[in-house]
Prior knowledge:
Layout: H1 2-46, H2 48-55, E1 58-65, E2 72-73, E3 79-91, H3 99-110, H4 122-132, H5 134-138, H6 143-146, H7 150-159, H8 163-170, H9 173-185, E4 194-198, H10 209-217, E5 225-234, H11 242-245, H12 260-265, H13 278-282, H14 284-287, E6 292-299, E7 304-311, E8 318-321, H15 325-343, E9 353-359, E10 366-375, E11 380-383, H16 387-390, H17 400-409, E12 418-420, E13 438-440, H18 442-448, H19 451-461, H20 476-487, H21 515-519, H22 529-541, E14 544-546, E15 551-555, E16 566-569, E17 574-577, H23 582-595, E18 612-621, E19 635-645, E20 652-661, H24 669-682
Parallel strand pairs: 2-8
Antiparallel strand pairs: 1-6, 2-3, 3-4, 3-5, 6-7, 8-15, 9-10, 9-20, 10-11, 12-13, 14-17, 15-16, 18-19, 19-20
Amino acid sequence: MTEQGNSQADLRKLKKKRLIRINVFFFFVFLLFVALIIRLGVVQIVQGEEFSKEVSRTESNYASFPAPRGKMYDRNGNVLVENIGVDAITYTVEKTTKAKDKLETAAKLASLIEVPSEFLKERDLKDYWVAANPEDAADLLTEKEKSKKGSETYKLQIDRVPVKELEALKANPAELEIAALYTRFSSGYAYEPQIVTATGLTKGEELTKDELTRVAENLEDLPGVDIITDWKRSYPNGDLLTGVFGSVTTPKQGILEARKSYYTARGYARNERVGRSNLEYQYEDYLNPRKSKVQYVTDTSGNVISESVIDEGRRGYDLKLSFDLELQKQLDQIVEQELKVARGKSGNYLVDRAFAVMMDPHTGDVLAMSGKKYSFEEGKMNDYIIGNFTSQYEIGSTIKGATVLAGYQNGMSMGTVYNDAPILIKDTKPKKSVRNMGPVNEITALKRSSNVYMFRIAFDIAGENYVPNAPFNASSADFQKMRNYYSQFGLGVPTGIDLPNEATGQQNTPPDAGILLNMAIGQYDTYTPLQMAQYVSVIANGGYRVEPRIVTSIHSPDENKQLGPVVTEHEATILNRINNTPEQIRQVQRGFEAVTKTGGTAAGYFGDNDVAGKTGTSQTLYYGEQSKRAYWGTETNNLAFVGYYPASNPEVAISVIVPYTGKTAAHPVNKLIAKRAIEAYANLDPKPQNQDADSSADVSSQEEAGQE
């Protein structure tokens, strides 16, 4: 009994322990439920509103759509540069777009259109291969490397793309087209339409009507793809002045890498078209349009909920240029015709270029500018208008007006007479004029182009008395002094024209003192045709160096194909006044007027037209086209002319330079170009009007020409 009783007592104790454990368990479960209920209550009642906002949270994204650039007009309101509409295919990436989505769309689109792939770089091909072969790309990494950040692993994959895979890709034209589309799809930001291809937007790339039709019929199967009307630059006057206008990048080229930070700071997209050169580059801030902006509202998954236009945008501002369209056409024709004639003359087998600049001497307006260059390699004449401000040449006796005025500044008296006879310097060949002229003053020296008169001025500048057969000593300070005199006229310094990459001429270290004499007759330092136009304008307007300008004003766009309201004026700018009296300047003007009269070096060329000017011939060596390298070092002449019309009240200044004519050729191509150009201006109807009379240089009163 006792053992049985103990056994039952133990069983009761065990049941009691189990019951206690069960109760503890249920109590613990009860506490968990209580905690859960309290937590749910807090979430729903206390934090419910906050979580509701999180669920419905949205994000605003902004995208810009292309608008045309500003137009360019001539001074009379004629359109020089405009935009025309072109059909284009775009692709827009959304935040939910994956690489495989772009690949699928690229493959479908490639089957509908032809896309060039020549632009693809090796990095583009690697990017495509990694995207198209994710599993193979993953195998390029070790297990440890796979745990690194995405950017780090991607770089490793790019570096390890097998060469044989790239070679296979390059040998597959169909896949290259897909790679080209994928690259263009990936070139922009989310919601920013990327131009994939367009009609005539890129040279050699055309989008046919059949291709457009096929794409339009399959748009539902091409997510992100759209057809829009885009724009491209158009030139109503053909190639006229295109060298000055410059060019614009294509969507494929996008922003200029050298100015990347400049563009990105201003909100440019990477594939945005920008000015590459000259006016398009110089006035990018004005010509660039304000693109239309669209706001996209997306949910937390990146799905677009709504979109709205927040800025309609506008095309870029328009530029009013200083050029006169009709005068420009005629000047281009004159320069090309006369260059062709000159090339046909005996001894002129190396002459390959000619330049002419016509400028308002009071405002600096460049009315017309022409440059032509014959290509020996291509056998044809090409435009070389930029050579007027990017190339430089020795300009010979045209500089003598500045030399005389430098002599005055150095203390020479007006009316000083020097005997034009050979200058004899110890251990040096005689230095002389074309012919001995006997006693001459500055007017006769300019009229007949006396070298000796200018040599004597150089002696004075160097502080040397001329003694026959004695040595001539000139220091580096004397050379700098001469160049400082010339710089007042814009020679050897920037003209200030509103174009990039302007050359300032070349000033070398002289090998000996005698070079100072050569400088005085334009036979050493080099200058651009534009600098020569600025220089002669100083003489024409009475002593003021005026900054040349291409753009005279900037205007708001007008949809009636005319210039809109003025946004800003580019006022005429006087850079400096030369350190000469009005009487001294007038004396040089008399000399220039005598040049075109009987006995002058340009007598008989300008007829009844009241022209003043100065001719120039510089002995130089040929260093032209690479294809003519065998002739480098051949002795040639540079022919030049500077002048203004009418001499009695100048309206236009002109400079002409024709380098590399034959040493024995007597064909006066420089004078013929100047003659015809002045005639074209004189016969122009209407003539260019001074667009900034209030800011023009104050020309000294003109006196009647005196006897030489």
